[in-house]
Specification:
5-stranded antiparallel sheet, 265 residues, mainly beta, 4 helices, disordered C terminus, 9% helix, binds N-dimethyl-lysine
């Protein structure tokens, strides 16, 4: 716990570069997060994206909200940026002629939905429209390059934002690899994904940036493609590696990992 993670030092240590800001679909100045725990809003159900549901802010982390759909359990919380197009003020759905839907896995009998909806909204603190920020435009060409560093959401543990490296680029997609972790958490995503952020994002938003893992060697950025054992700067025997002490990324070729489109969940 002694020394804290520092991007400047880390970029030097790994002789790598940060992916440029304009590569990302994120605002240059992160949006301010004015939401408060307990406020209600409308959100697309992540498990059924055509449904618009009522959600409650359960937590605040940097420019993100931890959300829970009203009528759902506490096992399906999700995180959205305050400038996500997945969230909107209460009343938006109706204004557009839509109907608020029960979340997938609604805990009560479906017939009790209309009454549940009335009760959940009655006296609720609704997040003001001004708290919702406009989603930034899509960056047009995919300008990420293999080896560039970034901050990325761990999709298996979506509350975590972690140091990551572009491991591959194909068309509009990038392969996000997590520094210091074996491939288990890596994923393909579109270059305009809201789950990836420029270096320094967490320090600007006040979100927590995880330190790199320590179970896979981290070397020069080129090491994500071919690692040279002499350049190993950090390594330990910690977990999810099957056959231990060889640097896990050794011999990795661009193109490994699942093809674009299959794992972007
Ligand atoms: N408890 C999990 C957390 C893993 C997080 C990995 N991310 C940061 C890439 C584990 O140890 O498997």
């Amino acid at each position: 716990k002694s020394e804290q993670f520092n991007w400047d030092d880390y970029l030097k240590e790994t002789e790598s570069v940060a992916a440029p800001l304009h590569c990302f679909r994120q605002s240059r100045v992160p949006p301010t997060n004015d939401f408060k725990v307990g406020m209600k809003l409308e959100a697309h159900d992540p498990r059924n994206v055509t449904s618009v549901c009522i959600a409650t802010v359960i937590g605040i982390t940097g420019a993100r909200l931890r959300l829970r759909l009203d009528g759902s359990d506490n096992k399906n919380d999700f995180w959205r940026l305050v400038d996500s197009s997945d969230i909107q003020p209460i009343g938006t759905c109706e204004k557009k002629g839509g109907m608020l839907q029960p979340p997938l896995g609604f805990q009560m009998n479906a017939s009790s939905w209309p009454m549940f909806l009335l009760r959940t909204l009655n006296g609720a603190e609704m997040a003001p429209a001004a708290f919702f920020k406009k989603e930034p435009p899509k960056p047009v060409p995919n300008c990420f390059k293999v080896g560039m560093k970034l901050e990325a959401i761990d999709r298996k543990n979506p509350y975590l934002i972690c140091p990551a490296t572009i491991g591959d680029v194909k068309g509009d997609e990038v392969f996000v690899t997590f520094d210091g972790w074996s491939g288990a958490f890596d994923y393909w995503c579109r270059c305009d994904s809201r789950d990836i952020f420029p270096v320094g994002w967490c320090s600007l938003t006040g979100d927590t940036l995880q330190p790199p893992g320590n179970n896979v060697s981290i070397t020069k950025s080129s090491a994500k493609i071919q690692s040279s054992p002499s350049k190993v700067t950090r390594r330990s025997m910690q977990s999810p590696q099957k056959s231990a002490p060889v640097p896990a990324q050794r011999g990795r070729k661009p193109g490994r990992g699942k093809p674009p489109g299959q794992s972007a969940v």
